[in-house]
TrEMBL record:
PANTHER family reported for this sequence: OUTER MEMBRANE LIPOPROTEIN, PTHR35603
Signal peptide (residue range): 1-22
NCBIfam families assigned to the protein according to its UniProt record, in alphabetical order: PRK11280.1
This protein's name: Glycine zipper 2TM domain-containing protein
Subcellular location: Membrane
Glycine zipper 2TM domain sequence ranges: 68-109
One GO location term (cellular component): outer membrane
Alphabetical keyword list: Membrane, Signal
Length: 176
């Protein structure tokens, strides 16, 4: 080996000496849990609330009744009644002719179709609205534990129970 290589090896050895002396010792132990407090956060989540109501809707009429036949029948019946009666009975005969003519004219035009009555059908109507739901979620636990007469507090993802597992490290103090 040449001199340059020997010098480099010596320098590296001297530099590594403090690292070799400053060893850290680690071991596991347990601490007693004094208090566990859940960390709860409130989360707002919009959601849909829907309901179905049933409403009455008029049904469309297929065919409407006509009134032209009744009008023509009333005129014809009135003229015919006016020809039949005489004196003061003529007015009564005309009135009876108008009523009878109206009925006959309506029957002829509408061919016995029933008088339309309002028909209704039940229809479902869905109504929705957005409401804000507030949900509470636990996002960790604040754990206070005792180890060798001292109290420590940390946040953990779950409740550890009565005792907590600890990783303890010990290293010498370097005051030289």
């Amino acid at each position: 080996m040449n001199l340059h290589t020997k010098m480099m090896m010596t320098v590296l050895g001297v530099c590594a000496l403090p690292l070799a002396q400053a060893q850290v010792a680690e071991f596991e132990d347990y601490g007693n849990v004094v208090r566990v407090k859940p960390r709860v956060e409130q989360i707002r989540e919009p959601r849909q609330e829907c309901r179905t109501e049933y409403v009455q809707v008029p049904v469309a009429q297929q065919q409407q009744r006509g009134s032209g036949g009744a009008i023509l029948g009333a005129i014809a019946g009135g003229l015919l009644g006016n020809q039949v009666g005489g004196g003061s009975g003529r007015a009564a005969a005309t009135a009876v002719g108008v009523v009878a003519g109206t009925m006959v004219g309506d029957k002829v035009q509408n061919d016995g179709r029933p008088v339309p009555q309002a028909e209704y059908q039940e229809q479902a109507v869905r109504q929705c609205r957005t409401v804000e739901a507030i949900e509470s979620r636990t996002n960790g636990y604040e754990v206070t534990y005792d180890y060798r007469g001292r109290s420590y507090t940390t946040v953990m993802p779950r409740d550890p129970g009565n005792r907590v597992r600890l990783r303890v490290s010990v290293e010498p103090e370097m005051n030289q």
